Amino acid sequence: MDFSLLTALNKERSERRAAVLVTDIGTGAQRLILRSADTSADPLHEELQRRFRSGKSGMVELDDGTSAFLTVNVPPPRLVIIGAVHISQALVPMAEIAGFDVTVVDPRTAFATEERFPGGTLKAEWPEDVLKSTPLDPYTAVAAVTHDPKIDDIPLIEALKSECFYVGALGSWKTHGKRVERFKAAGLSDAQIGRIDAPIGLDIGAASPAEIAVAVLANIIFALRKEAGGLQ
Predict the structure, then answer these.
(1) How many helices and strands in the chain, by DSSP H and E?
(2) Are both 218 and 110 inside the same structural domain?
(3) Does residue 165 sit within a domain?
(4) Cis peptide bond N-terminal to 199, omega within 30
(5) What is the C-alpha separation between 168 and 199, in angstroms, rounded?
(6) pLDDT tens track for 43-95
(7) Which end of the chain is more exposed for a tag (fewer CB within 10 A), N or C?
């Protein structure tokens, strides 16, 4: 690989930005495609978009009869849980087993304790402060479970603006209706607001915190692997 391409690729990796290295099988020529780039005129446009979503490398045949290998580099999936509640205690180990890098954010000292969340997953700070140093991105899922708009709203709005692949919020339909009104007043579009999984989680009749955690993780995995058109 050309040194300048390697340098550019490593920079994207360090910034949690996705990129695809396209290698022409016939000539060996390589080019780097950034997820942020406008690829609408690229003959590989649709394939690139699928690969950015799936994270899977592979061969592709072009219309002109040539072949290319797409080496896909995407950040590992993250889960940011807003609220150090009982659901979160069950969700953290499940999500970690499933391969997510998990962070729990909650400024409330009664909930945000090392005893309840050992292992370095906890940030006992306001979400807006955490997001200054750890911004959200399209490879992050956000689950807000505090039931408190003062804590949930800012990260939910930021998650929608950042195009996080999953955005979920705990609460009844009535609670969500009020949330929709607040978010419209904040300038979000109907399409953005419509992406919120609320009431949160797969409808499996979950009752206990552990069952709700299973339901939430199911929808997160669905959004990551299926809903966005990920390759199988």
Answers:
(1) 8, 10
(2) yes
(3) yes
(4) yes
(5) 8
(6) 999 899 888 888 889 999 988 889 999 999 999 999 999 999 999 999 999 99
(7) C
Residue owning tokens 């609670």: 175
131-166: pLDDT as tens digits: 999 999 999 999 999 999 999 999 999 999 999 999
Please indicate, yes or no, whether residues 116 and 97 belong to a single structural domain of this protein: yes
Listed in sequence order, the residues at least 6 apart from 190 whose beta carbon sits closer than 8 Å to its beta carbon are 184
Provide the residue type at 218 as one letter: A
Q: Are residues 48 and 88 in the same domain?
A: no
Cβ contact 169:200 at 8 Å: yes
- What residues does 60 pair with on adjacent strands? 68
For residue 42, the enclosing domain spans 3-73
The neighbouring-strand residues paired with 22 are 31, 70
Do 140 and 25 fall into the same domain? no
Same domain, 52 and 125: no
**Straight-line distance from the first to the last Cα atom of the chain, in angstroms, rounded to the nearest whole number:** 28
Q: What is the DSSP letter of 187?
A: T
Domain count along the chain: 2
95/219 Cα distance (integer angstroms): 12
- Look at strands 101-105 and 78-82 and give their pairing: parallel
